[in-house]
Amino acid sequence: KYFWRLTRNKHLVSLQPAQIHRFWKGLPLNLDSVDAVYERTHDHKIVFFKGDRYWVFKDNNVEEGYPRPISDFGLPLGGIDAAFSWAQNDRTYFFKDNLYWCYDDHQQRMDAGYPLESTLWKGIPSQLDDATHWSDEKKKGQMLD
């Protein structure tokens, strides 16, 4: 329902959270939560997931033709639990229950051989419910929960 915005220098825009549907023009007004959100590394567009649908945003406006079904990604219907992009290999990782998928945003296709068991990721819970990725000039990291 809410989110916090950061400046390019990684400072909070405001200590007060913003409502998702008021900032991101094109999300349903009754949207009270999202399943996952990630920023594509190649074009910096933001992708929101809720249930069986997803939206792609340039800046804070939804692109024409959205929402679309998550099956476009080769993901099963029923939604996802978490997503993040990893710039080191230009891939996006999707998690659902105890499985994960590896997606190539440039080629717009799932890598072969997926899904795999999320237990292959050492040190993370077997079932994720969120993920984030951050970087600055000195540090990079992911947080998976």
TrEMBL record:
Repeat recorded as keyword? yes
InterPro entries recorded for this chain?
Hemopexin-like_dom, Hemopexin-like_dom_sf, Hemopexin-like_repeat
Q: Name one GO molecular function term.
A: metalloendopeptidase activity
Q: Which GO terms describe its biological process?
A: collagen catabolic process; extracellular matrix organization
Mark the Hemopexin repeats by their residue spans.
31-77
User: What Pfam families would the database entry show?
Assistant: Hemopexin
Database matches in PROSITE patterns: HEMOPEXIN_2 (PS51642)
* The protein's name in its UniProt record: Matrix metalloproteinase-17-like
Specify the species: Notechis scutatus
Q: Which gene encodes it?
A: LOC113427349
